[in-house]
Amino acid sequence: MSQVRDSVSNGATSPTVPSGGETSGMPVGDAMGTRNGEPDSVSWTDVTVQDVHDARVRIMPHLHRTPLLGSDTLSRMTGTNLGLKAEVFQKTGSFKTRGALNAALQLTADQRERGLITISAGNHGQGLAWAGSMVGARTVVFMPKTAVPTKVNAIRGYGAEPMFSEDMESVFTVMEAYRAEHGMTFISPFSHPAIIAGQGVVGLEILEDVPDVENVIVPVGGGGLISGISLAIRSQRPDVRVVGVEPEGANIVRQSLDAGKPLAAGKIATVADGLAAPFAGDLSQAVIERYVSDVVLVPDSAIVDAMGLILDRCKVLVEPAGAAALAGLLSGQTGAKPGSNTVVILSGGNVDREKLKTLL
Fold first, then answer.
1. What does the alpha-carbon distance between residue 348 and residue 296 come to, in Å, rounded to a whole number?
2. Is the C-alpha dihedral spanning 333, 335, 338, 344 positive or negative?
3. Domains of the chain
């Protein structure tokens, strides 16, 4: 399998926004006249490590600093000195709240008035629903009608309005028609500067908790988390390997890397609904191409096995998406050397109890 670029120049910088928690007053997410909600031309320089530091100041007074767990058994099984970054304990059960709140806190008054809209399998929808309620913005979340009921109910519970498409492949088209009719602001689940910067705060915390980290293994759906983490870490520590893990049946980021351009997904088929992105984004792909060391694929069976291991050995329940990174490390594909200091991301924790019965 071909690798992504694994070299990052020291000192490669781009213009940054003012530091601190104040909004610049620039609109953060209008989708009008754009493809999949993004500007016509984007570059990996459109989001910077300074943006990540600014996001931390902005959002962390409202969020949890999630713990780094350890497991001697999983360290032995993976042949690494393993830490598990437990984003499962973040508000709403996943890292998604970080980016969503970062975007919401930078909305203009007009954008808050018009409301927010997004697409989601559930976790981003919960994060944006919670963030929208924090700033008093109406929030609409378009989901496939097969979405996990627990996630749908949670989105309602946070005060947002779930709406539905036939499947994940068509969800953006249906959402965009509604957005255009109602003039709402689209906040991408993964390919947006504020989203990427917010998720990148996870990377800053990893560097503090494990200063000598050598590998960070990240679950990949649309790529917002791995683009943020890789930007935050490798712009400061280019020697660290950041490797993504996708399900074999939902691998749009890997496909897009191989094609050299962002693609739309064909048929999506995976137990890890949280990683079922319908397309790759221009900005997230550009950041991934710049900073990520590799993206590898695992079958659903490996993801389910990893779920069981995490529950048995760490006493932590994660949804399938939350176990993908460990599954990738256990597969031996990530390039982690024996004895290396390695961190895997555990996120999210929004598993449906009925679905859980069929998995474990």
1. 19
2. negative
3. 55-94+192-359 (3.40.50.1100), 97-186 (3.40.50.1100)
Q: Which two tokens stand for residue 243?
A: 């490797």
Q: Report d(CA 94, CA 87) in Å as an integer.
A: 5
CB 122 within 8 A of CB 151: yes
Average pLDDT for 116-124 = 95
List, for residues 210-247, the tens digit of each pLDDT value: 999 999 999 999 999 999 999 999 999 999 999 999 99
- Under 8 Å between Cβ of 245 and 288: no
Its sign, for the CA torsion 309, 311, 314, 316, is positive
Query: Tokens representing 72?
Result: 């001697």
Amino acid symbol at 335? G
Amino acid at 104: A
Which residues in 67-87 are b (16+ Cβ under 10 Å) and which e? Answer: eebebeebeeebbbbbbbbbb
The answer to whether 204 and 56 are in contact (CB under 8 A) is: yes
- Amino acid identity of residue 341, one-letter, is N
**pLDDT digits 0-9 by tens, 254-283:** 999 999 999 998 899 999 999 999 999 999
DSSP code at position 66: -
CB neighbour list of residue 138: distance below 8 Å, 6 or more residues apart: 115, 116, 132, 161, 184
Q: Token match 């176990």: residue?
A: 323
**Structure tokens belonging to residue 259:** 């094609």
Band of pLDDT at residue 5, cut at 50, 70 and 90: very low
Strand runs (DSSP E) across the chain, as ranges?
A: 68-70, 81-86, 116-119, 139-144, 161-165, 185-186, 215-219, 241-247, 294-298, 341-346
Q: Which residue has the tokens 């496909």?
A: 255
Other Cβ atoms closer than 10 A to 98: 32
Tokens of 44: 């990996």
Q: How far apart are the C-alpha atoms of 197 and 53, rounded to whole Å?
A: 8
